[in-house]
Automatic annotation (TrEMBL):
Protein name (Swiss-Prot/TrEMBL): Fasciclin domain-containing protein
UniProt entry keywords in alphabetical sequence: Signal
GO cellular component: extracellular matrix; extracellular space
Signal peptide: 1-23
Polar residues bias: start-end ranges: 37-49
Sequence ranges assigned to domain FAS1 in this UniProt record: 82-210
Region described as Disordered: spans on this chain: 29-80
SUPFAM superfamilies named in the record: FAS1 domain
GO biological process terms on file: cell adhesion; extracellular matrix organization
PANTHER family found in the cross-reference section: FI19380P1 (PTHR10900:SF77), PERIOSTIN-RELATED (PTHR10900)
Organism of provenance: Nocardioides guangzhouensis
Amino acid sequence: MKRTIARHSSIAALALTLSVGLAACGSDDGGDANAAEEQTSQMTDSPSDSMGEEPMSDDQPFGEACASLPASGPGSVDTMTEQPVATAASGNPLLKTLVAAVTKAKLVDTLNSAPELTVFAPTDDAFAKIPKKDLDAVLADNEQLTTVLTHHVVEGRLSPEDVAGTHQTLAGDEITVEGSGEEFTAEGAKVLCGNVQTANATVYVIDTVMMPTM
């Protein structure tokens, strides 16, 4: 019994010695580790030079035709951001024919009062691709004109990250958008200036009128 107690005492003494030795050795390392941790904390808490730079906005338009927008006043990026979509489009120099068509179809209030939309807006040149006889026929038929115009409108805002895919239009049919980054086509129509923000819509200006299947 005494041998067992003595043996246990010896083991305990050895363990205590090792523990003290390790603690002594670890005190220097711990100091270095604490210093490194403090330095890391300071680096984390202190803003880096890059953080001081103004971040790029996700709402910036992109595309070759964006350069045609006025720098200020009606039709400019800043002004359109504050206006509902039909009103904003009326100041855009690329969209005069579209605005006239929307007005004729009596869709101005409908578009302006919608909470959130994505509009694929054909340019004047896009409408000019349609033979005059066919365009005049569409403009003369209010029901058909309304269908064509609402075929270009999707409920909800679609960012460049979300716009690719198949989407239901306000006309009740679907359109398919393909691409990524800053290169997109909608039903084959090229996006010339995308991610243009208005008060209630995101606009993608396109080079071709998308005709629904009627």
